[in-house]
Amino acid sequence: MIVKVEEKLFQNRYRVDAERPHIRIVKPDVCEYECKTQQCTVCCPAGCYTLEGNGKVVLITDGCLECGTCRIICDDFRNVHWKYPRGGYGILFKFG
Amino acid sequence: MSEKFDAIVVGAGPSGNAAAYTLAKSGLKVLQMERGEYAGSKNVQGAILYADALEKMIPDFRDDAPLERHIIEQRMWVMDDDSFVGTHYRSDGFNKEPFNRYTIIRAQFDKWFSAKVQEAGALVICETTVTDLLRDESNRVVGVQVDRDGGSIYADVVILADGVNSLLARKAGFHPELEPKNVALAVKEIHFMPQETLQERFNIGEEEGVVIELFGKITQGMMGTGFLYTNKESIAVGVGCMLSDFKEQKTTPYALLEQMKNHPSIKPLLAGGEMKEYTAHLIPEGGYKTIPKLYGDGWLIVGDSGMFVNAVHREGSNLAMTTGRIAAETVIDLVKEGKAMTAANLSIYRSRLDGSFVMKDLKKYQEMPEIFDANRQFFTIYPELVNRSAHHMLHVDGVDKKTKEREIFSSFRAKRSLFGLMGDAYKLWRAFR
User: Fold this and answer.
1) Residues in A touching B246 (Cβ below 8 Å)
2) ipTM confidence
3) Which pTM does this prediction carry?
4) What CATH number does the domain containing B314 carry?
């Protein structure tokens, strides 16, 4: 079953802090060469991490639900730098 | 802001609101910080509200709190791919006031609770993220640093109600990073439909609600559960599994949810609804053994940040409110006695928690996470066997019932040895007793 997470995220409200992503990959090379499973590309519930054809992992935080999954599952490499967005930015749940 | 507060509460979820409300009500000077646009805008829950924990603070909350439906029926469904075996418990006893539990919509409920906190006299500042704890030369916590200019604010005690991720407490070294095996990831959608449709579909009256807990094949072998809750004119449907399990497989959380929604027993319940929000949240399910140190010089931890979730009974927000209230009462008592907010004095918080249902319940189920983790058959083999047995017994095809019974028993034996079956029964008994 192909499920498009974008269609789900489209229902949500966000105030994106342009140019100031609150999560970043510390060393992109570690994702590309050392991490075998790249589970962030599977486990992130907002599909923020995508695996490119060239083996690179690309992170776009705009749809982030601020759950913390990517940071915790990266326990083999601790390669995710994770902060909360600035106050007032990020996901704004209507119902929660 | 150079003024000093008696207490700063970080976070405006159930635990933070309970703490701030209790403190402010007693007349203390309280500042509460929240990173969301308003209290609730960053918060996610199923959500069920257990009245008791809130009632202890706000006895008349029913008068104006945004409550969706009180629960009169609990269903538990053990799912195979296209069937379920279930139990339903429905009682008119649940229709007697005061009602015991309600479905709520957290963004609305937390906003209401926050208004109560402000009425009680606390200063609530939203859209502000606390980035650090401030310490004095003896390493005592004396305030917080926020992400707005000039943002050092001081207080005698800081209550960390900063949620499951609890970046603040981790940064301060109060507890280590969460391990994937101690946290569940839950994803949820909310589907709106006309109130009448919903009531007919679930066979309920205007204010009445139904809860469905889902186990088995829907989690695809992972340790986890699904749920479906009826709100006034919407249905919350979600599924959660341990992060350590998500880490080992290739199904995305949203595909898992989508497959669950398409189960032939669930799909008709959602038909025609309009999905208006998709959320995700972590649940600290490690239980008693993973509770960190809860107090120190100038600080206390409450709610999800302290791992206060009873995963077996799906309770969390009531534990959050109770820990928030007890933390606040501890502070209030120390202020009254003129005592400082030292670790030694604040340790009363821990002993009061130990005497409450919070720690008693968590202790009772302390082995549960490990037992389920080591025994996946409870999520895989048994749901399948139970469903297939029911089908076999109920499918009338000329085979006599005694033969069917024998066939069912040997299907259990084929999947699980007699020793394994007895062992599983013993493990369950031991875990729940």
Assistant:
1) 39, 42-43, 69, 73
2) 0.97
3) 0.95
4) 3.50.50.60
